[in-house]
Amino acid sequence: MFKPSSLLTVLVSVGLAAPISSFASGACVNPDFRAQKISAVKTSAPQKAAASETPASKESNAPSVPLIAGQADELKIAADNFKTRYPKTKVLAYRLTPLAGIFEATVGKEVIYFDKTARFVFSGRLLDMDRGEDLTDKRLKDLRRIAFDSLPLDKAVKTVYGNGKRKLAVFTDVDCPFSRKLGTTLESLKDVTVYTFLFPLESIHPEARVKSDAVWCAKDPSKALSSALKGEPMLKAIADNPVCPSPVNDVLALAKQHGIGGTPTLINEAGDRSAGALPLDKLEAFINAPLQGN
Question: Is it true that the peptide bond before 264 is cis, omega within 30 degrees of 0?
């Protein structure tokens, strides 16, 4: 929430799109993930032809062809212009915005904006200053919501605090200072079951993968995770251990599927996600967020 005024303002950022909870501070981010986000829109210019296609949504209800939400002729013209200019970009939906002459395109799990000619494409926050609403944030939350029950919890380290009635999933890199900070905060929780997906960002923390494997294969993975997050020395894991196969590769694929590129990333039972080492009060509020439809 921000202080309302009489204007509807578009804030333009340098990167492709600002996440729900920005990775600008309070989280470790894979540099490769930033690069993928920046290259999401593909022009038809020859030098762009070699770029890989923008990943489409993996959700079962994702449309096989782009949808045009609304019947406005202006939207159809704008969408046609976008498709002509950027034929390699997979757009899941085109939508009107409250700002005349500005349209929205859903690309994977991101939202971008463009004018009627599609010559000008930009990213950032669309803010309704009268209502004090971040319209972009609202859309991103819907796009990035993950059904908690769809997560492969058998591939996560399970830690129970109190009666464990509430649930929280966390993607963590044991060498990320923000994951370590969150780990300390998690120990103050009551009545929560935390499922930790070991998500090493090897490009910035080269030892995190071995440590993650060691945590998983420990006699008590939850205790080993706590020690790793405190920076305590650990026994090295056996590479490709046939007795204890590590789920790390599966977790990396899961993160890629859902567009998760930083740690810590949190998912509550409502399917909302947040990034960064939340303080205890905000963490409690996030965990207690009402389920959709309740």
Answer: yes
Integer angstrom CA distances of residue 173 from 46, 123, 169, 263: 38, 28, 13, 6
**CA dihedral of 38, 39, 40, 43, whole degrees rounded to 10:** 130
Could you tell me which residue, 33 or 277, shows the higher pLDDT?
277
Give the C-alpha separation, 103 to 97, whole Å: 6
Q: Is the pTM of this model over 0.90?
A: no
What phi and psi, each to the nearest 5 degrees, are found at residue 162? 65, -135
Three-class secondary structure of residue 284 per DSSP? helix
Contacts of 104 (CB under 8 A, 6+ apart): 94, 95, 96, 97, 111, 112, 113, 139
* Coil, helix or strand at residue 33: helix
For residue 232, count other CB atoms closer than 10 A to its CB.
9
Half-sphere exposure of 146 (CA within 13 A, CB side): 22
- Gap between the terminal Cα atoms of the chain: 23
Point out the least confidently predicted range of 31-45, 69-83, 198-212. 31-45
| Phi, psi at 169, each rounded to 5° | -110, 140
Q: How many residues does the chain have?
A: 294
Long-range interactions of 30-36: CB distance < 8 A, separation 24+: 30/201, 30/203, 30/204, 30/261, 30/262, 31/203, 31/204, 32/203, 32/261, 33/261, 33/262, 34/261, 36/261
Share of the chain above pLDDT 70, in %: 76
Cα–Cα distance for residue pair 216/155, rounded to 1 Å: 9
Question: Rounded to an integer, what distance in angstroms lies between the CA atom of residue 274 and that of residue 48?
Answer: 33
Find all residues with CB under 8 Å of 288, minimum gap 6, and list them: 166
The DSSP symbol for 267 reads E
* Positive or negative torsion for Cα 71, 75, 79, 80: positive
Q: At what angle do helices 221-229 and 208-217 cross, to 10 degrees?
A: 150
